[in-house]
Amino acid sequence: MNKQNNHRLPSLNILRVFESAARHLSFKKAAEELCITPPAVSHQIRTLETQLGIVLFTRLNRSLVLSSIGEQYFAQVQSALQQLQSATNELLTNNTKSTFVINTVPMLVSTLLAPHIHSFQESQASFNIQIDSDASRTDFAINNIDVAIRRVKGDEPNLIYKPIFKIAIAPVCSPSYLDKNPQANLTTLENCRLIRTSVDMGNWPLWLKQWGYQAPSTNELLLNSFRAVLDATQSGAGIAMGYLPIISASIKRGDLITPFGNKSSFYGEPCLVYRKKDQDKPILKAFESWLDELLIQLGWSDK
């Protein structure tokens, strides 16, 4: 194994002195730029040369010239300092941006916002866009959020609820599930493994009741997120309750099928939610317009 060089790096301050002196080819002009004395500049350069064991400047009677290795070092040091300055400027600029926080359930983060929010961010360069994912209902009064997408409409007097699309539920499974499980009976659900999610325990009971089915008493798989349910279903683990139109693209691609045909149940109308006092804010109007266009583009809404 080759030993790594562990030479001590010159200080940032001494590199700034070197960069200025090399750029001006003058200790005097570097001193003026850095608000120090020319002897101080000369001392710093000699310290750097001693530390490196390299002559960086050729000192003539009335001029200063970089040595060949000094020219190479100057180009690299200048580039590094410029990158540091750029990174610092970007950090400070981002810290001065206003923040726009969007809250919704994890299911809509992974299927709606995360894949597309970059286009909204690009149109709102003066804002830092943040997505807050929470399965529970977030309180506008105590949480720092600007807008939310909620599955169930509320009646808070200080909030505005705007329905944005309709959700239906229908069982789905992988195309291979029934072939690999010929004992599965879709008439009685006998020998069918149902996949449920702990963040929504009401979807299967509602569908089963509407269509007159009895759930199997055993052989179910309980998972704690929509993404986990989707992954397990696509891998052939069982039959899950799918949300339409959220998974419509997976059905069109053939990743999932609806084994019970068109037996679906209406399951609500998610709403865009924000404070009444904020309804005229340009960023909020821009987000609402962007979301409407996105939902139409995805085929989730026909406004």
Explain how this protein is built.
The protein is α/β, with parallel strands linked by helices. The protein folds into three domains: 84 residues, Arc Repressor Mutant, subunit A, CATH 1.10.10; 99 residues, 3-Layer(aba) Sandwich (D-Maltodextrin-Binding Protein, domain 2), CATH 3.40.190.10; 101 residues, Periplasmic binding protein-like II (D-Maltodextrin-Binding Protein, domain 2, 3-Layer(aba) Sandwich), CATH 3.40.190. It has eleven helices and twelve strands. The strands form three sheets. Strands 4-3-5-12-6 form a five-stranded mixed sheet. A five-stranded mixed sheet has the order 9-8-10-7-11, sandwiched between helices. A hairpin with a 4-residue loop joins strand 1 and strand 2. Helix 2 crosses helix 3. The protein is elongated, with a radius of gyration of 32 Å. It starts with 11 loop residues before the first helix and ends in a 5-residue tail after the last helix.
According to CATH, the homologous superfamily of the largest domain is Periplasmic binding protein-like II
Number of strands: 12
User: What's the SSE pattern?
Assistant: HHHEEHEHHEEEEHEHEHEHEEH
Overall geometry comes to: elongated
Q: Which characteristics define this entry?
A:
alpha/beta, Arc Repressor Mutant, subunit A, D-Maltodextrin-Binding Protein, domain 2, five-stranded mixed beta sheet, 11 helices
